[in-house]
């Protein structure tokens, strides 16, 4: 039951945000009593923390599984984009911005580990791309990895990317395309443009 509560509350958090997540709404959605929830979690903060761990490991494990497929690095980045986009419920506010605003201590813990995992993933992808002749050998891997990290964590900021002007799909697709375009060789660009055409 504990795992089900964590999974459901995380799903609700992604869709409704922090304000829409209460013990009452979770109990109602799951058809259980609040007493059952409080048996495992004393406060909403405890539940959100457990949910943040669940989300972190779900995304990390999913990305690792994609990288084990040994696809070419450009396709690998597209698969990762689609996976994370699906997990984070596409159109909704980044959970990390929600954590930063309402649960700063949870945010600080998450962001440190998130960077470590993402840096490892992107560094591996960049090295593979250079080796296969798809990415420029002149790029600074350490720097580009950080460029990617900063960008991907901010493209869901609705104060900058107003949903009235841009869809989440449009933003995610454009971000990945121009990130990759900036580091690709001509060989890589030919492959990248094929993926771009397939999105239409």
Can you describe what's shown?
This protein is mainly α and 200 residues long. It contains 10 helices and no strands. The longest helix is centred in the middle third of the chain and has 28 residues, at 104-131. α1 crosses α4 and α4 packs parallel to α7. It is elongated. The chain has a single domain (49-198), classed as Tetracycline Repressor, domain 2, CATH 1.10.357. It has helices spanning 2-16, 23-30, 34-40, 44-67, 73-87, 95-102, 104-131, 141-152, 168-181, 186-198. Residues 1-59 form the HTH tetR-type domain.
Topology readout:
Elements lengths: L1 H15 L6 H8 L3 H7 L3 H24 L5 H15 L7 H8 L1 H28 L9 H12 L15 H14 L4 H13 L2
Helix pairs in contact: 1-4, 4-5, 4-7, 5-7, 5-9, 6-7, 7-8, 9-10
Which keywords apply here?
10 helices, mainly alpha, Tetracycline Repressor, domain 2, 200 residues, elongated, single chain
In short:
With 200 residues, the protein is mostly helical. The chain is 72% helix and 0% strand.
> Looking at this structure, what is the CATH superfamily?
Tetracycline Repressor, domain 2
Mean pLDDT: 90
Query: What's the architecture in CATH terms?
Result: Orthogonal Bundle
How far apart are the termini?
Answer: 42 Å
How would you classify the quaternary structure? single chain
**Total helical segments:** 10
The gyration radius over C-alpha positions equals 19 Å
**Secondary structure: number of strands:** 0
Give the helix/strand class: mainly alpha
Proportion of beta-strand residues: under 5%
Helix content: over 70%
Q: Which blocks of ≥5 consecutive residues have pLDDT under 50? A: none
The CATH topology is given as Tetracycline Repressor, domain 2
Shape: elongated
**H-E order:** HHHHHHHHHH
In total, the number of domains comes to 1
The biggest beta sheet, please?
none
Please report the first level of CATH classification, the CATH class. Answer: Mainly Alpha
Protein name: TetR family transcriptional regulator
Pfam family, one: TetR_N
Keywords: DNA-binding
InterPro entries: Homeodomain-like_sf, HTH-type_Tx_Regulator, HTH_TetR
């Amino acid at each position: 039951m504990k795992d089900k509560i964590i999974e459901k509350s995380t799903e609700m958090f992604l869709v409704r945000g922090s304000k829409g997540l209460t013990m009452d709404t979770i109990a109602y959605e799951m058809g259980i009593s609040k007493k059952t929830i409080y048996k495992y979690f004393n406060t909403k903060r405890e539940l959100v923390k457990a949910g943040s761990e669940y989300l972190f490991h779900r995304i990390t494990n999913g990305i690792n599984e994609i990288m084990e497929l040994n696809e070419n690095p450009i396709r690998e980045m597209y698969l990762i984009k689609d996976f994370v986009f699906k997990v984070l419920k596409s159109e909704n506010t980044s959970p990390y911005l929600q954590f930063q605003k309402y649960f700063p201590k949870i945010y600080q813990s998450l962001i440190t580990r998130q960077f470590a995992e993402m840096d490892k993933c992107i560094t591996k992808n960049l090295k593979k791309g250079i080796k296969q002749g798809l990415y420029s050998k002149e790029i600074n891997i350490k720097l580009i990895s950080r460029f990617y990290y900063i960008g991907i964590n901010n493209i869901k900021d609705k104060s900058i990317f107003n949903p009235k002007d841009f869809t989440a799909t449009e933003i995610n697709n454009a971000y990945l395309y121009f990130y990759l375009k900036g580091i690709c060789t001509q060989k890589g660009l030919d492959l990248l443009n094929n993926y771009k055409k397939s999105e239409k």
